[in-house]
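Retro notes, structure queue

What went well: the backlog is down to a handful. What didn't: a couple of records were mislabeled last round, so from now on we paste the full input next to the output in the thread. Example, using Gamma-amino-N-butyrate transaminase from Dermatophagoides pteronyssinus:
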Amino acid sequence: MFNGHQRSIIQRLLSSSSSSTTTNYVLNEPNEPKIITNEIPGPKSRKLIDDLNKIQNAGAIQLFVDYEKSIGNYLVDVDGNTYLDIYSQISSIPLGYNHPALIEAVKDPKNISSFINRPALGILPPKTFNDQLHSALLSIAPKGLNEIQTMACGSCSVENALKGKNSQPYHYHFFPNLIGSIFFFCRSKIIYPVVCFYYRTWQRGQPPTEEDMRTCMTNEQPGSPKLSIMSFMGGFHGRTFGALSCTHSKAIHKVDIPAFDWPIANFPRYKYPLNDYLDYNQREDDRCLTMVEDLIEKYSHNGKPVAGMIIEPIQSEGGDYHGSKYFFQQLRKICTKYNVAMVIDEVQTGGGPTGKYWAHEHFEMEQPPDIVTFSKKMLIGGFYYRPMFRPDKPYRIFNTWLGDPSKLLLLDQVVKVVRKENLLKRIEETGDYLLKHLEQIQNQYPSILMNARGLGTFCAIDFSTPELRDQAIRKLHQNGVHCGGSGTATLRFRTTLTFENRHVDQFVERFDRTLRSLSKQ
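Corresponding output:
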């Protein structure tokens, strides 16, 4: 299964770690990055890219990676170059490469069945499934969200999350769901979930008519009602059809694809440093909040009521734009006021990189969001939801796999390591250290850098032009830092949860070297 080099790494990792709850795992990382080829990508990577391009479009491929040799926060490519990785597979590696806790989970004989048998979880879950959900997922659930649905990836998590609609505990009120498939009947303080079929039965006083059954099959009214989902300019929620209608980060994601006529609100665009522009940023929050209410009322008037909104705590792909605590608190109140379901998309921010498991917890909203989607660092996709969002009929939320139990095994180990080593506190401290250095270095290069910002190590900094940002990324690769951008001119940081101050120091030295070369051009 493993080659000689990988076996030696694994043996070294396991010999340096202990399953004891009192001993932290030790990552035998390289001392520093090391680049040995004259060009990036190197000749072996370029050859593999050319070969791949013969059978698919390989234009997005940066490098071919030797994952057996990669360790911790260091990525090794097929040419033998070692990079400090601040990108972590687009924010999806929680503990670093080849972490001993995950290796132990894979090697444990009692876990073999989970790795070789992938069940259709919706109909035939394994006997350990309930315990895994509690241990790996519900133990870290966002406050107020006590139910869970697993999925395979971020896009399908969002897509299925957009099918649920909450209803407040008013007397005898009905509210349509996000897409129009689930409705909830509320009576007094008891909430009775029912599907659209029963809502329409109540409305008509009889079962669905022949017209209802016929028109729903051709996506027409009255069988398919007109409803809308609000999203925000700059947001990214996936590339499936419904999620893509809520995505507004890059044109290449959307061009040529039909989209729903759904409302798109502005997300705040702040001036930095924040403390120097308090009045401006407050007005920006209020402007966006006013637009949200105006769109809700406009679409209701036009016969396409806004049943829900989806929003990221930090607009990750769109350019690492932040919203303030005030903005999200008021947004939650607007959702409650208009009975709009609030869906927080934590696919990229969830799992700890902001110093909390869930970035929206920084906002201290009076009510929790109605649904929180996740994937990436959580190793499995899915969404948490408030109890009133549970569909009362099977197959409403369904696909063949609904995730993968082997990923729950790995996530369970991640959660244990995070707790044992207090990694969320560490990532908060490392993030403060990183942001302080980003602010210092932007002061050294004011003509190149601006707008340093972040929560935890989920940080970003803007370049004065897209061209400079792209040049910086290429030079950082050459200087031994694997990284990536967001938006048009932003360098983003997506570190593992084991990223430490010493890694920050290595990055800062190479970033300064990169900026000096750019400033001489």
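Agreed that this is the format going forward. Reviewer comment attached to the example: The radius of gyration is 24 Å.
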